[in-house]
């Protein structure tokens, strides 16, 4: 009954890659009891927040619950995949469906489009469910070796070795988790709902629009392309917001990884990694941002060494085609 635990201590700090892979294999396989897709969603939430940990490798429940809620909102509301549990409806499904009904939210609304206060209220409710059914369950499956957690502090602390492992094999873990989550959703839902299912599962962390970031960057910096310095006039379809490190690796939209780009550079760069010479430019840009932006949450736990680490780990994960404008 590990899912009922309120505190979980880290039982093993030093694990080899082989030992971590063995545990991951068990978690993703049929050997791990999965009455719902919760465990997959928590793994995806951890991956989305790998670069948001503090110096003690800690993540708050609010950070994880936000990602967890976004995953399920876009599956349940946006894609109508409301069977996420064997037997009765998963509690997360009930909470989200009730919110959608009570506020008459159209199904085409992705999570980032709904009102901010409504988002926070929803995340708070989902966090309660995660305390009851999620944090302890995955902790039990990983035998207390992947992370510690504390409901009172509302904090999850990753094993530093596991954090490093997940960074090193991030792309592979993402693909494995998406595949197994999609397979379970396909088993639980009716055929008409599952067209292009893997693509739906893969894209659920992505925001529908980066427009708010564009306005924010425009308000603090000159309207010019980060890569080629072309002046951006602001005309429709001319100004783009680009993920400096490709989104398909980062799996998250963070201000410190977003730059203004012209249409030509954005299209040419696509899913490639910018030449290392641009790394110094974005480190300088982010240094300015940390001093210009009033809202601390937009640069939470950002450090230049994390940006460098992100760049290096993306190469290890196969993003080794270097791009220049």
Summarize the structure in words:
It holds the Pfam family HNH_4. The protein is of the alpha+beta class and 325 residues long. It has two domains: 2-202, no CATH class; 211-323, no CATH class. It has helices spanning 17-28, 38-48, 61-78, 91-102, 116-133, 135-141, 160-168, 170-188, 197-202, 211-220, 247-250, 263-269, 277-292, 304-316, and strands at residues 7-8, 58-60, 147-150, 155-158, 239-243, 258-262, 273-274, 322-323. A hairpin with a 4-residue loop joins strand 3 (147-150) and strand 4. Helix 4 packs antiparallel against helix 5. The model has no long low-confidence stretch (mean pLDDT 89).
Order of strands in the sheet with most strands = 1-3-4-2
Q: How would you sum up the major sheet?
A: 4 strands, antiparallel
- Overall geometry: globular
Number of helices: 14
Cα-based radius of gyration, to the nearest Å: 20 Å
Derived structural class: alpha+beta
User: How many angstroms separate the termini?
Assistant: 55 Å
| Regions with little confidence, pLDDT below 50 for 5+ residues | none
Overall tally of domains? 2
Record the SSE blueprint.
Elements (H helix, E strand, L loop, with lengths): L6 E2 L8 H12 L9 H11 L9 E3 H18 L12 H12 L13 H18 L1 H7 L5 E4 L4 E4 L1 H9 L1 H19 L8 H6 L8 H10 L18 E5 L3 H4 L7 E5 H7 L3 E2 L2 H16 L11 H13 L5 E2 L2
Parallel strand pairs: 7-8
Antiparallel strand pairs: 1-3, 2-4, 3-4, 5-6
Helix pairs in contact: 2-3, 2-8, 3-4, 3-5, 4-5, 13-14
């Amino acid at each position: 009954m590990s899912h009922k635990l309120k505190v979980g201590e880290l039982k093993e700090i030093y694990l080899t890659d082989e030992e971590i892979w063995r545990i991951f294999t068990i978690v993703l396989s049929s050997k791990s009891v999965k009455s719902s897709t919760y465990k997959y969603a928590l793994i995806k939430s951890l991956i989305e927040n790998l670069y948001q940990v503090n110096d003690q490798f800690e993540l708050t429940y609010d950070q994880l619950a936000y990602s967890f809620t976004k995953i399920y909102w876009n599956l349940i509301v946006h894609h109508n995949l409301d069977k996420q549990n064997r037997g009765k409806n998963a509690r997360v499904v009930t909470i989200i469906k009730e919110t959608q009904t009570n506020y008459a939210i159209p199904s085409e609304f992705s999570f980032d489009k709904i009102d901010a206060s409504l988002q926070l209220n929803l995340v708070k409710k989902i966090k309660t469910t995660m305390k009851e059914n999620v944090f302890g369950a995955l902790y039990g499956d990983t035998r207390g070796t992947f992370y510690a957690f504390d409901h009172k502090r509302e904090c999850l602390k990753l094993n530093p070795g596991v954090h490093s492992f997940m960074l090193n094999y991030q792309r592979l873990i993402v693909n494995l988790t998406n595949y197994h989550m999609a397979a379970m959703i396909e088993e639980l839902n009716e055929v008409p709902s599952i067209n292009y299912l893997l693509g739906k599962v893969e894209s659920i962390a992505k925001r529908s629009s980066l427009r708010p970031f564009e306005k924010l960057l425009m308000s603090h910096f000159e309207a010019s392309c980060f890569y080629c310095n072309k002046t951006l006039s602001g005309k429709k379809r001319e100004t783009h917001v680009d993920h400096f490190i490709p989104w398909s690796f980062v799996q998250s939209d963070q201000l410190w990884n977003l730059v203004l780009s012209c249409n030509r550079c954005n299209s040419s760069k696509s899913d490639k990694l910018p030449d290392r010479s641009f790394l110094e430019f974005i480190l300088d840009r982010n240094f300015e941002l940390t001093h210009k932006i009033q809202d601390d949450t937009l640069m939470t736990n950002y450090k230049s060494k994390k940006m460098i680490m992100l760049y290096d780990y993306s190469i290890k994960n196969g993003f080794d085609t270097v791009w220049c404008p």
